[in-house]
Amino acid sequence: MPNKDQIFIKDLTVEMSAGIYDHEKAQKQRVIINVTMDVESNAGKMLNSIDDVVSYEGIVNSICKLCDKKHYDLLEELAEEIAVICNSKKQVIKTFVSLEKPDIVTNTKSVGVNIYR
Predict the structure, then answer these.
(1) CA neighbours within 13 Å on the CB side: how many for 3?
(2) pTM listed for this prediction
(3) What is the largest CA-CA distance in the chain?
(4) Beta strand pairing call for 4-16 and 111-116
């Protein structure tokens, strides 16, 4: 694999509606989001503006809009939608998305899903 860089978003915490149970649909809950994007290397490139790189701020804003948009029965659906957003950027080679629900299963630190796309 050629040289690559990584862009990451660590522990983005959102209050959102997610889950299959009635009590999850009735009240928003915390979801912790982590994203790592393998991107084309910036080595040797002229980097003069935000348009020359993948903007983590733009990705964060898009993720927050997704989380506010609707109820997600399954975190897997949300993870797929996040991966589509990330992979739509031309510099992105591969995306890892991790979603955690820290408050839903009481005898665990968190439960969730990881995907690579």
Answers:
(1) 5
(2) 0.92
(3) 53
(4) unpaired
Q: Which CATH architecture has domain 4-116?
A: 2-Layer Sandwich (3.30)
Query: What are the tokens at 105?
Result: 């299963």
Place of tokens 């979603």: 99
Q: What is the dihedral of CA 96, 50, 10, 27, to 10 degrees?
A: -90
- Among residues 39, 3, 32, 2, which one has the least CA distance to residue 18? 32
pLDDT (tens place) for every residue of the chain, 117 residues total: 568 999 999 999 999 999 999 999 999 999 999 999 999 987 777 778 888 888 999 999 999 999 999 999 999 999 999 999 999 999 999 999 999 999 999 999 999 999 999
CA distances from 84 to 1, 39, 80 (A): 22, 15, 6
Q: How far apart are the first and last CA of the chain?
A: 16
